[in-house]
Write a structure and sequence with these properties.
The protein has a single domain, classed as 3-Layer(aba) Sandwich (Rossmann fold). The protein is 39% helix and 22% strand. Helix 5 links the parallel strand 2 and strand 3. The longest helix is centred in the N-terminal third of the chain and has 17 residues.
């Protein structure tokens, strides 16, 4: 799917590890992240998606976020690198307007301005910086002017002790890219990709955050 030539060592390791890990992890993934189901539905509600809107869910995994969007009446496409994860998503799918496609998000197979909403949940922290930036830029490309962006991912609490506990706990099971991601200004990353960051909301004692953005062409209020 992706050409190994021209990739950095860090990028090659990311793709290789993703393929190996999720091939084994797919059957158990939903059980491990079961506690996040309520959050995914909250995010879908927060997006205020109108029935019939076109939604792209990047790094969809087993499709939980995509299916939560589909419950709102949206037309949803979920994309992911792992065919093993997508098989689980397809088995769960009961919505005629939801579909799942294997694709590398650094080169999305969609035309410019194809979607009203683009989302990515708990995936940016796994990506090397170069991949992370390209993925968000591609999401901006395929989002309509005035369209919205939703990013859900790890963050660090403001309190020093809680911050240290959360960081070292998550580091036990996450990749090295996590350490880089949680120290980044995600709003600036969103702005640099072609969106305008408008709002963020902390969840789970500030260990998770929802960032909302809009592609220039519509007031930020629409992303709130």
């Amino acid at each position: 799917m992706h050409e190994q030539r021209g990739l950095t060592k860090e990028e090659r390791e990311y793709y290789s590890l993703s393929e190996r890990v999720y091939a084994k992890f797919a059957p158990f993934y939903d059980l491990v992240v079961y506690g996040l189901r309520r959050l995914r539905r909250e995010v879908a509600s927060l997006a205020e998606i109108a029935a019939g809107s076109k939604v792209l869910d990047v790094a969809t995994g087993t499709g939980e976020a995509a299916l939560a969007f589909a419950e709102t009446g949206a037309q949803v496409v979920g994309v992911d690198l792992s065919e093993h994860m997508l098989r689980v998503a397809r088995r769960k799918n009961r919505f005629p307007d939801a579909s799942f496609l294997r694709a590398d998000a650094v080169e999305l197979p969609f035309s410019d301005a194809s979607f009203d909403v683009a989302s990515i949940c708990f995936a940016l922290h796994e990506m090397p910086e170069s991949v992370r930036e390209r993925v968000l830029a591609e999401m901006a490309r395929v989002t309509k002017p005035g369209g919205r962006l939703i990013v859900v991912d790890y963050s660090l609490p403001s309190g020093r002790l809680t911050r240290s506990v959360v960081y070292h706990f998550v580091k036990l099971y996450e990749r090295d890219a996590y350490a880089d991601f949680v120290r980044r200004d995600v709003a600036a990353l969103i702005d640099g990709a072609g969106f305008r960051a408008c709002e963020s909301r902390a969840k789970y004692r500030e260990s998770v955050r929802i960032w909302l953005g809009v592609k220039p062409g519509d007031p930020c209020a629409r992303a709130a």
